[in-house]
Amino acid sequence: MRFSGLLKAAAAFVAVAVLLTPAFAEDAATWAKSHQSELVELYRHFHTHPELSFEEYETGPRVAKELRAVGIDVTEGVAKTGVVGVLKNGNGPTVMIRTDLDALPVTEQTGLAYASKVKVKTEAGETGVMHACGHDIHITNLIGTARWFAANKDQWKGTLIFLGQPAEERVGGAKIMIEAGLFTRFPRPDYAIALHCDSSLATGKVGIRGGYALANVDSCDVTLIGRGGHGAYPHTTIDPVVMGAQLVLDLQTIVSRETKTTDPAVVTVGSIHGGTKHNIIGNECHLQLTIRSYSDEVRKHIHDAIIRKAKAVAAGAGAPEPKVTFSEGTPAMFNDEKLAARLRPVFERQFGKDSVDDPEPSMGAEDFSMYGKAGVPILMFRLGTIEPKRLARMKELGQEPPSLHSSLFYPDPEETLVTGVTATVAATLELLKK
Q: Which residue in 85, 42, 77 sits closest to 61, CA to CA?
């Protein structure tokens, strides 16, 4: 009898322990594993049906359909192709989970059986279209997370916003979503989170950091205006190609000699075009630049310096004032430090400390930053996408993993999606706590 009593007491203790243990993490992982084949099938659909920025005419409606199927209130056509799903479940915080919807003008060369065969005509000619940045994983992760929360309302209280944002690759989607009333037509979130594929991180791992994670990014076009003529008589012309060559070198000193050495900054001339034939000096030379920084002060200084140096080159050649325009700008992404400190332990409990990476800041761009600029605490975490055996084989061969935007990049979706849904659910449940 005494032994029986001890067994009963032990059973009662275990039952209480189970109730007190945050079972959501295990439940989310178990759910994701049991629905893995469905998630992979959905991922392959999005992978084989990529659409360019501002042209997500099939992707948006498919996301809306999937969200509606689990009882989420959905609004389509926000900022043309954006999707907003709202799931209310009593009183509590409001958390926004965001995915991007668009793909890239890249012709896929992965050799996968489900490789994208989509082609479109652009101003530069015909090109393939590919989810080379993992947005197909992001979309599937959002839908998988939505399915879990809709099926497990007994485990949380509050409001969830499932956001399908267009045109991240053109860094314009977040801006127009906000302008279309994202935070006025729909519940304003207390927090916003997102994940992003990491092409060099192993599956089963996530990465998280507070503070600057991605950079201010701007495109800049400079048109130098000369006076054309015969290549045999350069003294009768103002050669814009020579001005362009001088400007390329002058621009390098903005970072090397004008920017504080501890302030990250990049000025890259990615394209230069001038002239039409060997013996003709043309009228114009066109330069295309990408500009990257973290602080607003450095960003402004670089803009001002480019204009100053372009004008100086033109003035030195006796040429008309050049045309300088900036476009496709997005602010640096600053992960809320308190949010990062709050969520790191959640990921460490879920995956183990060795599986939570501390990624370095990148000079890449993400317009998820716009939601932070609008006053919402934001955090974007990294998601591992390459199986460890694949990474080991690449290392053995002396190869680097294909980067995001590469025609050769592809994730291993099975484990990637399980980890993504598990991490997103765990982070969201933490933020839904009052």
A: 77
Nearest by Cα to 164 from 51, 275, 252, 301: 51
Using one digit for the tens of pLDDT, what is the confidence trace for 204-241?
Answer: 999 999 999 999 999 999 999 999 999 999 999 999 99
Helix (H, G, I), strand (E, B) or coil at 199: strand
Interhelix angle for 135-151 vs 24-34, to 10°?
120
Task: Write out the H or E segment, with its range, that includes residue 383.
Answer: strand 378-386
Q: Phi and psi of 296, rounded to 5°?
A: -65, -35
The model carries a pTM of 0.89
Query: How far is 189 from 178, CA to CA, in rounded Å?
Result: 12
pLDDT in tens, 342-391: 999 999 999 999 999 999 999 999 999 999 999 999 999 999 999 999 99
Evaluate whether 114 touches 47 at the Cβ level (below 8 Å).
yes
Instruction: Give 322's Cβ-side CA count (13 Å radius).
Output: 29
Tokens of 33: 């594993």
- Whether the CB-CB separation of 416 and 197 falls below 8 Å is answered with yes
Beta strands at 265-274 and 211-214: parallel, antiparallel or unpaired = unpaired
DSSP state of 399: -
> In angstroms, rounded to a whole number, what is the distance separating the alpha carbons of residues 238 and 306?
21
Which residues does residue 241 pair with via DSSP β-bridges, in sequence order? none
Distance CA 285, CA 303 (A): 19
